[in-house]
Design a protein that fits this description.
The protein is mostly helical. It contains 20 helices and no strands. The termini are far apart.
Length: about 375
């Protein structure tokens, strides 16, 4: 009987109930809320579902993120190996290749002025940079945090890794991906606040047709120009443009399909679960994390507002030919931000179709955020 009692006692104490803290239970509730938003509300489920489930796993079984050094048998936790691919900037670069392979850059080529809207929306990044410094973060940490303002999860992870900010990479990544997922909630009130109903009803003329040659030359030229000026952007901009070249060349359909489908979804699973698994209660429930989340929200809001306001300026300059709503798509959440521009415009006038016009600033925002990251790396001497 004593043997049975000891065995049952050991089994009982092996359950998670005896090892979890109050913080773990809080994070489990947060994970369940995220799963609800992803599954029930449909807020970018491809991103939010793996992130939320990774959050759930690490707070039930923290050893799933155990590093090799912490392990007694020299074998790390499953999600630790996934996370190493984030730290080595492999997964963010592969995500960019998938984005390039699945995105039509035609609207940006047809309307190069979209670059200005994409650049304007990066204002939130530099706003967050100075805000982070005022909140007590060092320069490198402030730079890593600020990229959240571009609503670009892969670039946020990439820059945090390159600047050696692995201690806060988890909160940065979760904040960036969370705001990417919540674009349909965060952006519309800002867009409506800064525009009139008349402006939201503006119909833009159809974009000019873009030739196949232009589409093939664009990723090559952008890679040469941007990477010559900022070589540190090569992993992101290079992979983005390589994916797009696959798409537009028309001679590597198998590579295009793989990069935009199978590979993209595999990378999303690995990156999403590993990012979610950085949110253990010990690492996430602290003041630095709260500051990062607040700064990220402020930066994202300012980036959206700057894009819309620059759109209003372009509307005035073109005598009403530009709908200011497309400026909000200058953040690099592709294609979520462009779809939000379309949705808000259609609410004002159901016959208004802004999606293709908004894709120009949206793609420009992806390039702009990568350039901002490269600029920070150049400033801090990172290669």
């Amino acid at each position: 009987m004593e043997y049975i009692a000891n065995t049952l006692n050991n089994l009982l104490h092996q359950t998670a109930f005896f090892n979890l803290t109050v913080g773990n239970y809080v994070m489990i509730v947060v994970a369940c809320v995220f799963l609800y938003l992803a599954i029930r509300k449909g807020f970018e489920p491809l991103l939010l579902t793996p992130i939320a489930f990774g959050m759930l796993l690490v707070n039930i079984y923290p050893d799933i993120m155990m590093s090799i050094e912490e392990s007694s048998n020299g074998v790390g936790g499953l999600l630790h190996y996934f996370y190493l691919l984030d730290e080595w900037a492999i997964l963010p670069s592969l995500i960019f290749m998938g984005v390039g392979a699945s995105t039509d850059f035609g609207p940006l080529i047809a309307n190069p002025k979209s670059f200005l809207l994409g650049a304007a929306a990066q204002f939130g990044i530099f706003m967050a940079y100075f805000g982070a410094i005022l909140m007590g973060f060092n320069d490198a940490a402030a730079a890593a945090i600020s990229i959240i303002g571009g609503a670009d999860g892969p670039t946020s992870i990439f820059l945090a890794s390159k600047l050696g900010q692995t201690a806060i990479m988890g909160p940065i990544a979760v904040a960036a991906y969370s705001y990417m997922s919540l674009v349909p909630i965060i952006q519309p009130p800002i867009m409506k606040l800064l525009t009139t109903e008349k402006e939201r009803k503006i119909k833009m003329t159809q974009l000019r047709p873009v030739t196949k040659l232009e589409k093939i030359l664009f990723p090559i030229v952008i890679t040469i120009v941007v990477c010559l000026i900022l070589p540190t952007t090569a992993p992101l901009v290079g992979m983005l443009m390589l994916g797009n070249l696959f798409r537009e060349s028309g001679v590597v359909r198998q590579l295009t399909d793989t990069a935009s489908n199978a590979l993209m979804y595999i990378v999303v699973i690995l990156l999403g679960t590993s990012v979610g698994a950085t949110t253990s209660a010990e690492a996430f429930l602290n003041w630095d994390t709260i500051k990062i989340v607040i700064l990220g929200l402020i930066a994202f809001a300012f980036g959206t507002a700057a894009g819309v306001l620059f759109g209003k300026l372009m509307c005035i300059a073109t005598k009403g030919k530009v709908n200011p709503l497309i400026g909000s798509a200058g953040v690099s959440a592709v294609p979520m931000a462009a779809r939000v521009s379309q949705k808000v415009g259609a609410e004002a006038d159901p016959t208004n179709f802004l999606l293709m016009h908004a894709m120009g600033p949206n793609v420009a925002g992806v390039i702009g955020t990568a350039v901002a990251a490269g600029t920070f790396m150049a400033i801090f001497g990172v290669f």
